[in-house]
# Entry
Amino acid sequence: MDCLNNKLSIICLLLLLLLLLVLPYPSATLPLCTDLRAPVKPKKPLTFCPYDGKACCDSSQDSQLRQRFDALNISDSACASAVKSILCATCDQFSADLFKVQSGPRTIPVLCNSTTDGGAPSKSQGQAVDNFCSNVWDVCQNVSIPDSPFAPSLHRKTAVPESSNPYKLTDLWPSKTEFCNAFGGVSGEDSVCFDGKQVSVLDNEELMPPKGMCLEKIGKGSYLNMAPHPDGSNRAFFSDQPGKVWLATIPEQDSGAALGLDESSPFVDLTDEVYLDSIFGMMGLAFHPDFARNGRFFASYNCDKIKSPGCTGRCACNSDVDCDPSQIVSPDGTPPCKDYVVVSEFSANGSSSSTAEKGNPSEVRRIFTMGIPFGGDHGGQILFGPEDGYLYLMMGDGGGKSDQYNFAQNKKSLLGKIMRLDVNNMPSEKTIADLNLWGNYSIPSDNPFSEDKQLQPEIWAMGLRNPWRCSFDSERPSYFVCGDIGQDQYEEVDLITKGGNYGWRMLEGPILFQNQTTTPNITLVNSNDTILPVAGYNHSDVNKKEGSAAISGGYFYRSTTDPCSYGSYFYGDLYAKNIWAALENPKNSGNFTTTSIPFSCAADSPLPCSSVPNSPLPALSYIFSFGEDNRKDLFILTMSGVYRVVRPSRCNYTCSKENVAASTPHQPPPPAASSSNTGSYQLLNLLLPLCFVVFVLCRLDTVGSA
# Structure
């Protein structure tokens, strides 16, 4: 029998093909400009580049592009039209992706090319075969272009031979093939290319919210922070508000096991450093991306300068921001800047940090210290950027009612901001003094202050009230999302971009903010290019009696455990009565729709779940934070314990994509796993040996038949 005709072989091949179809593909980046800022609607219409709506150019840049185009003095109209569109691509709202800014600067966007190096056809963003790169060559190959933007010296950083005439494409490039190999590319799920027109998001697949979220309770403790172990294993760190950190082993899905955590043996105990109160404590925990080798980890916490002699530093209310501490009167009589936000560095014990089970509570260095004027709205989360390796610090507006000093909109204040700090290159004492820094860190050279000298150099984004729980999408790191707690009316979810202004105190979410001490200024709101939230909810939606609410930002769901939730951004409210799924439709557009979804606890939960009286909801008590492990499974950290999202069928939720029969415990991820599609590739790893056995049997059968 011919092995290829063997039924088992055919079944095996079909399984592999099916798996390839269900593997999640990485998605393209969101609309971003080449300076990594969000596109905005120009205040004046662009007269040269045909871009309406949001764009990455203002009228001044539009005029500069016109001058550059005129200087090229292109005589051929077809070539001139193509070159004009290419120059104007810098105004496209997807210009960061078109110009591949993460890979290094380039003068020409990726031109859509209908074939790859191997000759395989590709698709443009409209899903039709496109050959714009070839068209550019055809219409411009024999046209003289002084100071040509297509010069190899600009693309390869090499000099053009002196004997050549750098005008025509045929003088610069040997053939169309080499030209398009240099400038051409394809558009797909993970990238876009330029076809001569404004990039549009054309995706007919509409994401649908899951029918519900099924949870299991795996831990009893009450934690604020969860951080997966940087070695990629099935371990994670948990910390509580008083200041203890534990290293825990996370059980496999469907194992029936609880969280492996010994509360009597913390990884490190920082309670002597932390000032604990209802709104104060240890707010953030972050492990250096290279922790497995260098053992560095960081804690963000509060200290009280009256109770702790080591709690010293500058007050955020000072003359630089037109604030006089002596004029601040707290409702409870607390003196201004009694409480501080601190970020400290610590180290793990042992020669091998990846196997260390204890950290050293002695501070290595003080990264950041700042006194907050009032007793609240201090944020405090810290996390490392997955691509740039910088430390992000989320800071609230300082707690004053209605932010009466307007700290969040003051570019000289660090209150109401997201900061981006370099903790890998430590400054000298002279540098700290010269730059007036707030601790031991350096300033990344591409922070927004490089283009806006009015900004404090630490600032990455501004206009936030009290950011509570931010995360980077593990598949699309440019999607940096934060929940921001409102004051009276609205809780918001913000898509954070470089230099973005999220409106507070001019806006509360999408609503003009007004109270006794401030008056909304519509002109100021428009002139500051404020960025509206992508999702959120009104206080009255969750608590109609008191109108009280507090958002907890979450994560994009990237686990394969619940395939019907894949791609949804989940977030919740402190009072644990609502969890929302925000879905981006169309994908990669930055436009989200939200749905409040039901959630319940599995009957076979490793730890029993209690229920809210007269309600089907599990008694989570309060939702403090969300978490994600190295498998990309989602966790909810609550006052009543640690919950994990599990297969929807365990709670009788319908999910057509779930294969219940194949739901078996999966293996722990290997160390230093970097793929965000771990679950699918683990299934692939299981199928490949199976198929190998099948083919061996086929071979034996063939030999026996012979």
